[in-house]
Amino acid sequence: xxxxxxxxxxxxxxxxxxxxxxxxxxxxxxxxxxxxxxxxxxxxxxxxxxxxxxxxxxxxxxxxxxxxxxxxxxxxxxxxxxxxxxxxxxxxxxxxxxxxxxxxxxxxxxxxxxxxxxxxxxxxxxxxxxxxxxxxxxxxxxxxxxxxxxxxxxxxxxxxxxxxxxxxxxxxxxxxxxxxxxxxxxxxxxxxxxxxxxxxxxxxxxxxxxxxxxxxxxxxxxxxx
Length: 225
Known about the structure:
Blueprint: H1 2-29, E1 36-38, E2 57-64, H2 71-85, E3 91-98, H3 102-113, E4 121-126, H4 128-137, E5 152-156, E6 162-163, E7 165-166, E8 176-177, E9 180-181, H5 185-224
Helix pairs in contact: 2-5
């Protein structure tokens, strides 16, 4: 009887980790990556050397020359996206506005700062031509409006590539999301949050794989010594 119990315990100790490992490998193998729309978009560092898309997961918005009318969109982005991810080390939000909007940007930052830590909010003022060049490098199916504004927020990965999501909202389930509508709380909450998580998960899995490969190489190297 004691022998049987011993074998059962040993079996559990051996089999359970093995099953967990198999499921982990299956999950990793079947993990769905978020599609890349455009590689090598123009980096924000071309406008302002203090900032870069590289090595960051960036949410990017374009407010043009009428910041006051876009306040509601920014507050939606703040509540549904920024507050969810600002604690992530490699996360940032980049907002472009035209140079004529410096005072309006300061007012917006003051409002946001009343109840938000702005450490990962980056507001960049630039010329209309510079902002349009950044946007056009995304190569989406839409354009900035006459005020240089877009109601969509865009997702740029660490390799400075634009990513595309897929809507989970039933009425839009066949829609490819080249950007996320900041006026739609549902789209930000249901789609953008999940898609940002997917991109973070991609990099975490890649990092774990690289670390595992490195340990394996070191182990083989040590065995040969």
